[in-house]
C-alpha cells in the first residue's frame, strides 16, 4: 500500500455528517468552497503547522503537526495518543506518516520525527506502531526501527520521507545531509542518502555498498541534499524531489549506487553567492532529470492515478512551498517536462490522492488548512 491509496472523499457537509455527535474531538467549522483557476477548493480543517497526510482506507485522514501531534480528522479532529517525543524547532519535529504495506491486516503505521541526542545534537528517527481507532485513538507498541547516524548539531535538512515499494517488500527512506554538506559524499554515514530497508528497518539484501559494513549496508544512492519528496511512478521506478541551495531544486530518478553530486556540483549556488560547479562539469556524477531556478521549494509529491483529472493520469504532482500551489510534471521515459502550475496562494506542504480522484493538500505553517481539490465546473 502506498501513501496515495485513499478513501473517497465527499463534499464537506457529508464528510462532517459521517461522524456521530458523540465522537470526541473538535468539529471543524464548515468553510465555503472557492474556485481558483481550474480547481474547486474546499477547506476541510485547520491545523497547526501540518507536515504530512495519510488517509485511512475506511475513512479518516491522519495529519502530522510539526510540534509533535498526530491528528485524526474523520468529521471531528481528534488527537492520537502515544506519539513519540520530538525535538521541535527549525525544520525539525514530527514528520512523515505512512500506512504500512500490511495496514489492512495489522493497523501498522510508520512515523518519522526529529529526535534529540547528547550535547545539543539531533537526528531523524523512524518508528512504527499499531493505530487503534475509536473515540480515543492511540498508537500501541511504538518501536524505533531506524535512526540517522550520526546525530549532529543544527535543526535543518532531516528529509525523513518514507516510501514503500509497490510490492510492499521494501521501505525507502530519504535521509537529508543536515545542512552539513560533506556527509552526503561519505559512505560511512547515512546522511545525504536514499536508503533501501526492509519494513522492519533493517538493511535490505543486495544494497550496492553492503560490503563496507556499518550503515553503508543501508545506502541505495548518495550525494543528496534535502529530499522532501519520494515516490514510485506507475512503472515502479523511484524518484526523489530535493531542495537545492540558492536555485537548483531537483527531481531525480533514483538508481542504485549512483552519486547525485551534492555538494560537489549543483544547478544552484551557495546562499552567500559563491559559485557551485554545475553537473555538466562532472559527467561521472548523475544530473537531475529536471531542475528549477528560481526554486519551487518542493514539499511532497505523488504520481496521479485517478479519474477526476483524467488528463493528468500518470503525471507527477508536486506540492510547492515557494511556488504556493501545485506543479504538474510529465515524464516520457526519462524526459521530464514541467506541464503546468496551479496557484493556491499558500505554501503547500503535502499532496495526496483520494479514491474518487480528488486531491488533498495541506498548507504549511500556523493555521495551515487541509483542502480538497476537484476540477472546477
Features:
25 strands; mainly beta; disordered N terminus; single chain; five-stranded antiparallel sheet; 377 residues; Neuraminidase
Question: Describe it for me?
Answer:
- The radius of gyration is 20 Å and the shape is globular.
- The strands form 6 sheets. A 5-stranded antiparallel beta sheet has the order 1-2-25-24-23, with no helix packed on it. It has a 4-stranded antiparallel beta sheet with strand order 3-4-5-6, with no helix packed on it. Strands 7-8-9-10 form a 4-stranded antiparallel beta sheet.
- With 377 residues, it is mainly beta.
- The protein starts with 11 loop residues before the first helix and ends with a strand.
- The chain contains 2 helices and 25 strands.
- A hairpin with a 5-residue loop joins strand 9 and strand 10 (138-147).
- It has helices at residues 12-17, 103-106; strands at 34-36, 39-47, 50-55, 61-65, 69-73, 77-79, 94-99, 108-116, 122-132, 138-147, 159-164, 171-175, 193-197, 219-222, 226-232, 238-243, 249-253, 290-292, 298-303, 316-320, 325-332, 335-343, 348-353, 359-363, 368-375.
- It has one domain (12-295): TolB, C-terminal domain (Neuraminidase, 6 Propeller).
- The protein is 3% helix and 41% strand.
Number of helices: 2
Strand content: 35-45%
Model regions low in confidence, pLDDT < 50 over at least 5 residues: 1-24
The rounded distance between the terminal residues' Cα atoms is: 32 Å
What radius of gyration results from the CA coordinates? 20 Å
The rough form would be described as: globular
Average predicted confidence as pLDDT = 93
DSSP summary, beta strand count: 25
